[in-house]
């Protein structure tokens, strides 16, 4: 692997916390869901971008997706809003799309399917006009310690044939999108910490998942064993699985914090993870060499990111900032 170099191209400060991000293909236009219940539409590479706001949600828009000419958003209010991407006009609102907090949205590579996951521990797959296609149930409602679990994230494979969903205990379910059947499940248990003495509480979970471009590997990110669960005082952890065997092939633990987003280079040259603790973190992993090849601070704790088609631009949203990096 050649050395990865990166630099900040643009950095935009705001008062909001940005919790989700979707990028319009082949552009620097991003849609960012925020803590104030709005979705902000902007050109992340503009020197002084206009932050066009779309309203309609309660607080915490934690999922956004661009599917063809549609923008879909979801969040703490448990509903999905479907808008025209160009005008922002709301064309459909799905009230009670989930029974609890919607945590993440993902869109298939062809833009025909949208997946939503929520703390009701259900994944729902929709068509890009808002019709329900599948309801996927494979995650336990309670953790092994009998507390409510959370279904944090989901992602489609590059060929659009599989979907991965991941929860607080580190369980990852793989689904066949042809028929909605569960193919298998993986356990990234190193991402879950239970404190049975001081706080009687758990923390962690699989916060990010990514398929390799060839579909052979699945990376799962979060945080390793935490000594003090009142803080993100644990190692940034990524577990990598071989999907043919279903076995873990490597674990990366480097720096401190939570890996909130993972994405592979389009040709599989590297994997990048972003997140942080009180500050921000960006790391590049070499899967062949099985090592962290670059680790640095990000300008903010990162909640979501998107990579350009050529792997040369990385857009991220987080605590009070939106950042664009140039990568070479």
General description of the model:
With 328 residues, the chain is mainly beta. Helices cover 0% and strands 56% of the residues. The chain has strands spanning 6-23, 29-34, 39-43, 52-54, 63-67, 70-74, 80-84, 90-94, 102-107, 113-118, 123-127, 132-136, 151-156, 162-167, 171-176, 181-187, 192-195, 201-204, 208-211, 217-223, 235-242, 247-256, 258-264, 271-276, 280-286, 291-296, 302-307, 313-327. A hairpin with a 3-residue loop joins β14 (162-167) and β15. It is globular and about 50 Å long.
Helices and strands, in order, run as EEEEEEEEEEEEEEEEEEEEEEEEEEEE
Main sheet? 6 strands, antiparallel
Helix content: under 10%
Portion in beta strands: over 45%
Query: Kindly, what is the distance between the CA atoms of the first and last residues, rounded to a whole number of angstroms?
Result: 12 Å
Count of DSSP strands: 28
What structural class should be given to the helix and strand makeup? mainly beta
Instruction: Please give the radius of gyration in angstroms.
Output: 18 Å
DSSP helical segment count: 0
Mean pLDDT over the residues: 95
Order of the strands making up the biggest sheet: 4-3-2-1-28-27
Q: Uncertain spans, ≥5 residues at pLDDT below 50?
A: none
Overall 3D form: globular
């Amino acid at each position: 692997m050649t050395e990865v170099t990166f630099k900040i191209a643009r950095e935009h400060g705001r008062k909001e916390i940005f919790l989700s991000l979707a990028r319009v293909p082949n552009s620097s236009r991003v849609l960012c869901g925020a803590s104030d219940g709005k979705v902000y539409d902007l050109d992340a590479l503009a020197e002084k971008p206009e932050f066009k706001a779309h309203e309609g949600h309660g607080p915490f828009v934690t999922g956004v997706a661009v599917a063809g000419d549609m923008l879909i958003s979801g969040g703490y209010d448990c509903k999905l809003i479907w808008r025209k991407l160009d005008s922002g006009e709301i064309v459909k609102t799905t009230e009670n799309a989930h029974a609890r907090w919607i945590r993440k949205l993902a869109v298939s590579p062809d833009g025909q399917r949208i997946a939503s996951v929520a703390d009701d521990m259900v994944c729902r797959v929709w068509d890009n006009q808002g019709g329900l296609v599948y309801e996927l149930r494979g995650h336990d409602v309670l953790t092994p310690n009998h507390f409510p679990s959370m279904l944090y994230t989901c992602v489609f494979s590059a060929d659009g044939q599989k979907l991965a969903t991941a929860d607080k205990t580190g369980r990852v379910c793989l689904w066949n999108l042809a028929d909605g059947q569960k193919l298998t499940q993986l356990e990234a248990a190193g991402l879950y910490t239970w404190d049975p003495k001081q706080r009687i509480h758990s923390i962690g979970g699989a916060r990010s998942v990514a398929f390799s471009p060839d579909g052979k590997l699945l990376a799962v990110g979060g945080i390793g064993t935490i000594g003090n669960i009142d803080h993100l005082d644990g190692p940034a952890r990524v577990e990598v699985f071989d999907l043919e065997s279903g076995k873990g092939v490597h674990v990366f633990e480097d720096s401190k914090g939570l890996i909130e987003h993972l994405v592979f280079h389009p040709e599989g040259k590297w994997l990048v993870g972003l997140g942080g603790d009180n500050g921000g973190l960006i790391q590049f992993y070499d899967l062949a060499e099985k090592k962290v090849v670059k680790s640095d601070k990000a300008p903010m704790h990162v909640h979501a990111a998107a990579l350009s088609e050529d792997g040369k631009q990385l857009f991220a949203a987080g605590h009070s900032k939106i950042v664009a990096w140039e990568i070479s």
